Amino acid sequence: MNAISSILMMLGSIAMFLYGMTLMSSSLQKVNSGGLRRMISSMTTNPFREVMTGMGITAIIQSSSATTVMVVSFVNAGLLTLTQAVGFIMGANIGTTLTAWIIALFGFRANVSAFTIPFIALGFILMMSKSSKSKYFGQMILGLSLLFMGLSYMQKSVPDLSANPQAFAFIEHWTNWGFGSVMIFVLIGVIFTLIMQSSSATMAVTLIMVAMGWIPFSMATAMVLGENIGTTITANIAATVGNIYAKRAAVAHTFFNVFGVLLALALFKPLLKVVSQITMWMGFFDPMRPYSELQALDPAKAHETYLYASAIVHTLFNVTNTLILVWFIPQIVKFVCWVVPSRHEEEPMRLKYIQGGVLDTPELSLAQAKMEIVNFAVLMKRQYGYARSAIRESDSDKFDEYFEKLNHYEEVSDHIEYEIATYLNKVAENNLSETAGRRMQSMYKIIGELESVGDSGYNIGHIIQRMRSQGNVKFTTQMVERMMHMLDLLDDAFDAMATNCDLGYDRIQDISNAINCEQRINEYRDNLREEHLMNLENKAYSYLTGVYYMDIISECEKIGDFMINVSEAIIEIK
User: Fold this and answer.
1) CA of 332: how far to CAs of 85, 120, 252, 554, in Å?
2) What pTM was computed for the model?
3) Least buried of 54, 119, 377, 469, by fewest C-beta within 10 Å?
């Protein structure tokens, strides 16, 4: 019965630790969402800058799994290039080592766990605040408290093997097979991380096992190496629903960690010696000495020796691996592109950036939606290339092909509007800041305007189709020239709209570029109206031809209105 209660206590304490880690990570992301976005936008192609950014963000949100999933989402959303993502991932692997040091330094001290209950009370009080930031800070404190409480209960639930020689002998049996035992414990580290979906939780279990004398330090080192492989699975799961670039980012993460583990295994004994020297230089015992021997010398110091030595392994592994591979980022990118080749160009009907689902942080989810909207604008501009061809085409079969394209892009606009709106509805289920709420309302308006642009593209094709059905009604050469110039003005307006969408509310200063384009479209439309009346008076073309002609000009002017509405929706957020 005692064994069953110990197992249940261990499972419950692990669940508490994981929940605390998840709560703390998600709240830190929300508190720092604006800062995270600024950090990402400031990244350059400088590998050192990329590594430092990944390390900083992981240190802030305290979860390498969250960071790597975030990287995959950023690549999926076009916020990071694959080259930047590789450097980012390297930094994230260094940043996650901070968690091991926090656990080693504070997690096993009784005085820290004793303060968890008051901290839970403080976190609860802050969560009752009306301020979103105070609520997030409250969640962060509550998560941190639960993390340490779970860690404390984990330690208490581990049985004392010195009082159970049979259990000790069983575990010792698995550690006496030389390098075979090392591989077994690497596999155990992988499996534990896969089950718990958190390398931090597995690291905590490893620290407890080695500090309590369950396993020797060499086997703890093997488990740490296995954890670094297991943690890559989370990013690969996230990438399965992403685009090809997201899949490549996940493969790059796997390559980085697997390469480092293989190198560490090849140099396993030298690695242990280096860690032993660093640990002794810090004033502790040699962690390679038997547990019973160190316990006899100084139980407290022996306990700390194994904790710090394991944290050193984790840090040394990731820092060394990064220092080796950071010089080969271009080669890693080429390798992952070879492993995950581009099989075909993605169809416009498919969303390009938000296939990975909603992120934990609304700000970051809206960043994905923003990139999808920019792509939506680009697709709608592509539609008007077919409108040009349809206006100039005299062959009926070729015109039918262009009209089919215009119809297809109108369906694309309907589909993308619906998919983005559905995504935004899911984002809205989270707690949104005031600014995020305004951004979301703006996005709803923008996708509606872009869908109207798609409708107008189809309307232009339909007007031409009706005209062609008349048989003897054709546009004059001058009419075609005038319509081509109007489409040139629309192209400028499309570019201004896409630029403003890309800048977003946080970087846009004004929308004078869009306003100028709108004014030129309106002025040209007015000039064509006057010219049209004169041409009718002079009988330059038939009245029916003029009706179709001016219908197209009016449709183009409406498109200009839709596009200025998009820019106005962005600037209104300020």
Assistant:
1) 11, 45, 7, 53
2) 0.56
3) 469
